[in-house]
Amino acid sequence: MVRFSVIAALTLAGIASAQDQPAKPDAEKPAQPAPAQPATPEAPKEAPAGPSFFSGEYAELLSEGHTFVEGPCWVPTKEGGFFLFCDRVKDGGKTLRWSGEGKPEDWRVPSGSAIGTAVDSQGRIYQAETQGRRITRTALQPDGKPGLTEIIADKYQSSKLNATNDLVVKKDGAVYFTDPTFFTAKEDLQMDFCGIFRAGADGKVTLLDNSVKAPNGLCFSPDESLLYVNEYSLNKVMVFDVKSDGTIENGRTFIDFGKPTPQARGRADGIRCDADGNVYTTGPLGIVVLSPKGERVGALHVMGANNLAFGGKDGKTLLITAGNKVYTIKATHKGAGF
Fold first, then answer.
1. Which of 13, 193, 288, 336 shows its CA 20 to 30 Å from the CA of 76?
2. Does residue 335 lie within any of the structural domains?
3. pLDDT tens for residues 140-163?
4. Cα dihedral sign for 291, 293, 295, 296?
């Protein structure tokens, strides 16, 4: 079993000043996600005292030998539930399922090279497919297997989406998703910006923001009054106010990690909130925990971590994807929505 140490807390960092909203971002293609670095146990063994967000000292290796894992998500069912996560293998990728016991098994193959997964209140599975550059919805059959898959969004106005990356479903059923340009050739792009979009229950796709250069992971605060969006290229977390009509405003920097270094690799990629409003994001050395005020209050050292999800019957199991490996660890706080 491969293990990685937990850093109980890191030094505090204030909230950075609000970001100016440019009228139109340049069309420069953001940096592509770099291959995850091999996970190593090289991390400080001690850190300033602070609250613990992880019940164990180490994260446990669940599986390895994948191609490029991403998009973890917990799917609740009458029987309890299971995790899904994506592996961007050749020939269309696949989505795997893990029930909490044994090893992950194939669930949806191929999966359109999906790298983002979410679930709605009806148990339907939404995925951001990079191959088709679209958002799909897959019905969940009584036996837990995938049913019919339908396209929810693949265009904005008359233009094909860039490369849908991550998504989250609001309580009202609207799907919020990010659309950077990763994995899509420059000559195939039909839009000159990256966007944060909303696909409503009526099927309408609305552009919410195009000021973020490379929008990636996103999640809501527990009360859905805030939308957190990771900016991959600039390595920072943005936060927006969510208006009553579902649009967003007042985009500002929540925390800026700065340029990754050999000693602190890791970027703002996947992101989740716990039930108390703390923010868990990938970043330097693995997972960084931020208070609702943007203070660094904890961390979990897993080099190569690119996404995470809360799950389990109590909402306190974290599934972490990292390059070609998947890890689990128990959290002391349950995830938002549990």
1. 288
2. no
3. 999 999 999 999 999 999 999 999
4. positive
Cβ contact 254:313 at 8 Å: no
25 is written with which tokens?
A: 């971002």
Contact 321, 63 (CB under 8 A): no
| Residue 190 maps to a domain | yes
**Residue 237 in contact with residue 222, Cβ under 8 Å?**
no
d(Cα 326, Cα 304) in Å, to the nearest integer? Answer: 10
Q: 65: how many CB neighbours lie within 10 A of its CB?
A: 7
Which of 38-52, 146-160, 242-256 has the weakest average pLDDT?
A: 38-52
What distance in Å separates the CA atoms of residue 280 and residue 198, rounded to the nearest whole number?
Answer: 23
On whether the CB atoms of residues 177 and 166 are closer than 8 A, the answer is yes
Cis peptide before 110 (omega within 30 of 0): yes
The arithmetic mean of pLDDT across residues 236-259, rounded, is 98
Longest Cα separation, the chain: 54
In the block, residue with structure tokens 């199991």: 317
Contact by Cβ (8 Å): 98, 85: yes
pLDDT at residue number 51: 58
CA 277/CA 279 separation, integer angstroms? 6
Question: What is the C-alpha to C-alpha distance for residues 280 and 264, in angstroms, rounded to an integer?
Answer: 17
How many independent structural domains does the chain possess? 1
Say yes or no to pLDDT of 260 above 50: yes
Separation between Cα atoms, residue 294 and residue 287, nearest integer Å: 14
Task: Report the mean per-residue pLDDT for the chain.
Answer: 88
Considering the domain boundaries, does residue 41 fall inside one?
A: yes
Q: How many CB atoms lie within 10 A of CB 110?
A: 15
Give the gyration radius of the chain's Cα atoms: 18
pTM for the whole structure: 0.86
- State both tokens at 328: 């689990």
Q: What is the CATH number of the domain that holds 297?
A: 2.120.10.30
Q: Which domain holds residue 120?
A: 3-330
